[in-house]
Specification:
By secondary structure, the chain is α/β, with parallel strands linked by helices. The protein has 15 helices and nine strands. The longest helix has 19 residues.
């Protein structure tokens, strides 16, 4: 770990941290002999470490088999850090990896002890590789961290084997999720990093994050997506939903372990596309069509949210059903996902919908029936949402099923639920 700054610099940073409210600044320099040890663990901080820590244990255990089609058009890769130590790159290449990203730096005083072996070794094995920087936005500015990254292995050259540098911006491993920054301040920090990197290298960095962190900490800002490629992390079997500002993604981190050391990644394109991305601008294809289940998250309103709230209550929540996906609804979604072993991201996508729905039919009562009635009403029925699956509700279900070309059995099962909410 690079902790060899002079004592005078340490003192200066201590004063600066006190005045700027940066609680970690002193911890990242050479501490005075009598000072207690600080819990820095840069070698363990890597792309997805925050996401993995937020998943239920059994989800982490199975994430190595996340649903990614094993086809000839899927370009597989990996990202590694000092945690993986000496990587057997010839073996990685033999198993089918086409590209790799290697952690180079964190903040402005850590460089990976394994960077040279991993970065140069991957290139020697024939992989197209790039470097990434683990951001700590509360310790120094975005421009300063971009400069440090470039100076310690994160640069780019148009040699056909070097990918643009990556900015790993995710859950804070040392404290508050958003590093104590407001959403606007976070967007400014990311923009400063991106602008400086582009100024110094001629390329915009690829931005790595999760939809949940991006929504929480940037307010789902669309600004970086105007020029920065996206590296999306999602272990739920799909790269979507994407953060605002991006209509597609360049790389998808789909699992925290698997065939290769480190995290498992997929490039959105062909081998020729990967080479194009190494050389310059690349426009990836759009994500594959969805399953028909909507993707909704905090900030959304409408009848889909009403349905989600009723279904959460059917599973034991006590939400006020108001059609507003606010913090209480998100907390209930997170608790439900954790309890079901799903990716706990607070977003209701296909996997969460399919776990939420409850088959209801004549004679049933309760919140799940209200959910079905509310959806039927949203589709034009004049039903009363009373939670009682009586003859009127069955007639409305039969009419809806017939109109959608579904089996008209009067039972609200998975196919009918999907048609109702899509």
């Amino acid at each position: 770990m690079n902790k060899t700054l002079a004592a005078a610099v340490t003192l200066g940073l201590t004063v600066l941290a006190a005045s700027a409210g940066l609680p970690h600044a002193t911890a990242r320099t050479a501490a005075a002999p009598a000072a207690p040890a600080h819990p820095w663990h840069e070698a363990a901080d890597h792309m997805g470490s925050g996401l993995t820590a937020r998943l239920p244990a059994r989800t982490v255990h199975h994430s190595a088999t996340a649903a990614v089609p094993d086809t000839t058009t899927t370009l597989k890769g990996l990202d590694v850090s000092a945690f993986q130590e000496n990587v057997d790159w010839p073996s990685v290449a033999a198993k089918g990896a086409s590209f790799a990203y290697v952690k180079a730096t964190e903040g402005t005083d850590y460089t990976s002890s394994q960077f040279s072996q991993q970065y140069n070794g991957s290139a020697a094995a024939g992989l197209i590789r790039g470097a990434y920087h683990f951001a700590l936005p509360n310790t120094s500015g975005g421009s300063a961290q971009a400069d440090y990254f470039i100076a310690h292995g994160g640069g780019w050259s148009d040699d056909g084997k070097t990918l643009p540098g990556a900015l790993d911006i995710e859950y804070n491993p040392y404290g508050a999720t958003c590093y104590g920054l407001s959403q606007s301040a976070m967007v400014s920090w990311i923009t400063a990093f991106s602008t400086e990197y582009h100024t110094k290298t001629g390329r915009y960095p690829i931005v790595y994050s999760t939809r949940d962190w991006w929504s929480t900490c940037t307010g789902n800002s669309a600004t970086p997506g105007q020029h920065d490629p996206l590296w999306i992390a999602n272990y739920g079997g799909s790269p979507t939903p994407l953060p605002a500002g991006w209509t597609t993604y360049t790389i998808w981190q789909n699992a925290d372990s698997g065939t290769f050391p480190g995290d498992q990644d997929v490039f959105n394109g062909t081998t020729a596309d990967l080479k194009t991305f190494a050389h310059g601008t690349y426009t990836p294809p759009p994500p594959p069509p969805g399953s028909g289940w909507p993707v909704v998250s905090q900030g959304a309103t409408g009848h889909s949210i009403t349905t989600i709230q009723y279904l959460l209550n059917a599973h034991g929540s006590t939400l006020a059903v108001d059609g507003d996906f606010g913090p209480a609804t998100r907390s209930a979604v997170l608790a439900f996902q954790s309890g079901k072993g799903l990716t706990a991201d607070g977003i209701v996508g296909p996997d969460t919908w399919q776990a939420l729905i409850v088959t209801v039919q004549s004679g049933d009562t309760g919140p799940a029936v209200k959910a079905a009635q509310a959806e039927l009403a949203a589709h034009g029925s004049t039903l009363e949402v009373d939670g009682d699956f009586g003859p009127a509700t069955r007639s409305a279900v039969l009419a809806f099923q017939s109109g959608k070309g579904l089996t008209a059995d009067g039972i609200v099962g998975p196919d009918t639920w999907q048609a109702l909410v899509s």
